[in-house]
Structure formats: structure tokens, C-alpha cells
Amino acid sequence: MANAVILLLAAMAVSTILTNPRFEWGTVGKYFFEIRIIKGIGVSLGMTAVTMLLSLALGTVVALMRMGSSRLMATVAAAFIWVFRSIPMLVQLLFWYNLAALFPTLSLGIPWGPRFVTFDSNSLLGPLTAAVIGLTLHETAYIAELIRSGLLAVPDGQRQAAATLGLTPGQTFFRITLPQALRVIVPPLGNELISLLKATSLVSVISLADLLYSVQLIYAKNFQTVPLLIVAAIWYMIITGLITLLQQRLERRLSRHTLIPADRAGKAKGSEHSL
């Protein structure tokens, strides 16, 4: 009975979408590959890729600081995560875009001493730079916690077994700890990547020509608001679907790898005791 109700509702939804002339599917097809929209997709994908790479690098550093033995570094890392997770992404984008109002010039030098290099904030912090900075800092705070949780999920016994087998700390991290941590990190990291892709639509508020802003520029002239929003929605769904497929493939590949088997570790410990 439940299946029949679901199928009926699905059929009604599909019928409504296909038969309602106000969806204007002809207009959707006309603008689906419009050059401005394709360029906007490139901007969105470029920002997503650059931001994710920077966030992974910075997030790893922040996570290791948070887990380190230095109380000062752990406190700084925790404060960083708290600040940039607390402030909404839209607020951060607007703040960095308007940073010139707070600092008309940016300089490098000795505090209360000579300045070696001075930059004009308006020319340095354009829409693209402000967007990358805002998105990166926001994502770094979340990714740092993902990486930290993944590293903490690896049992200490694995590292002890690796030491028993004679592996160095570096070998232990890259061959034992990191592969196991990735199993925990990759699923939420894939979700974070999808969220980041969708969050790039917020840069339209600072007039950066991403996918959404390109669509807005077009329908501001021809007033075909709904069809063009459908174009943007379909493109976001296509890209999200591709990311999901890549994530699932990576998860399957990681799940096939085995690290230090329990019997091997046990034999290594047994041989050590026999000596």
C-alpha cells in the first residue's frame, strides 16, 4: 500500500512538472548551455576546488595543533575553530569584501617599526580574493574537526603494533594512521565538499559571476526568472551527483585496503617476547 501511494505521488509530481507550461522547458533548454552560465559554472567549480585544497592544508595544520602537546597551540587552534564556525559564511564574505573600510592599506613589516611592503586594500581584495578567503577560513574550521576526529578514531594499538614491527613515526602515520583515518574522514568530507559547492552561490552577494549570479544577470534582463533558476538547480544537481559518485568510489577503494592484520601484529609481539 505504501509503495502504491509513493508511486502515485511520484507520478503526479512528474506529470505536474512536465505538463505545467509555466516551467517553460523550452527556455530552460535554450539557456542551459548559454556561454555566461558555462563560465559561471567554471567560476563555481574553480572556487570550490581552490577552497577545498586550501582548507585541507590549513585544516590539517589546525587539527595537528589542536592535538599537539603545546597548550598554547591547542588553545589557538580551538579559538580559530570556535570563531570561524560561529560566524555565518555570508557574514564572513561580506566582511572580507568590505575589509578596505577597516584597513584602507595592508602592510608587511615590523610592529611599530618600518613597513617593507604596502598594499592598497581595494585593489588587493577584489570579489574573487574575498570569496576565497571567506570560504577557506570557514571551511578550514570544519575540516580541521573532521581530520581531528578521524585521527582520534585510530586505536593506539595500531600505532603500538606498527612500532613493534619497526616502523618509524613517519611510516606509521602515512602507512597506518592516515589510511585508517581516511575511512572516517572521507564520507563527511564528501558531504562538506558538496556543501561548499552549494555555498559558493553566496558569493553572488558580492557580485562575483558564479553560476547563480550569472543566472541572475540573465533573468534580470529577460524576466524569465523561474526557467533560469531551474537551469541553475539542474546544474547544481548534476555536479553534486558527480561528486557523490566519486565519493562512493573512493570509499569503496579505501574499504578494500587492509592495514596491520591482528594476527600479524600478534605474531610480531610473540616473536618479541620469545627473544
What does this protein structure show overall?
The chain is mainly alpha-helical and 275 residues long. The protein has one domain (31-106, 116-265): MetI-like fold (Orthogonal Bundle). Helices cover 78% and strands 4% of the residues. It is built from 13 helices and two strands, in the order H-H-H-H-H-H-E-E-H-H-H-H-H-H-H. It has helices at 2-19, 25-31, 35-67, 71-86, 89-97, 99-102, 121-124, 127-152, 156-164, 169-199, 211-222, 225-256, 262-274, and strands spanning 105-109, 115-120. It has a two-stranded antiparallel ribbon. A hairpin with a 5-residue loop joins strand 1 (105-109) and strand 2. Helix 5 (89-97) crosses helix 8, helix 8 packs across helix 10 (169-199) and helix 11 runs antiparallel to helix 12 (225-256). It is flat, with a radius of gyration of 25 Å.
Provide a short characterization of the protein structure:
The chain is mainly alpha-helical and 275 residues long. The chain has a single domain (31-106, 116-265), classed as MetI-like fold (Orthogonal Bundle).
What is the topology?
Layout: H1 2-19, H2 25-31, H3 35-67, H4 71-86, H5 89-97, H6 99-102, E1 105-109, E2 115-120, H7 121-124, H8 127-152, H9 156-164, H10 169-199, H11 211-222, H12 225-256, H13 262-274
Antiparallel strand pairs: 1-2
Segments where pLDDT lies below 50 for 5+ residues?
258-275
> Counting H and I runs of at least 4 residues, what is the number of helices?
13
Question: What is the mean pLDDT?
Answer: 85
Name the overall outline: flat
Determine the strand fraction and express it as a percent band: under 5%
Give the CATH superfamily.
MetI-like
Helix and strand sequence: HHHHHHEEHHHHHHH
Oligomer status? single chain
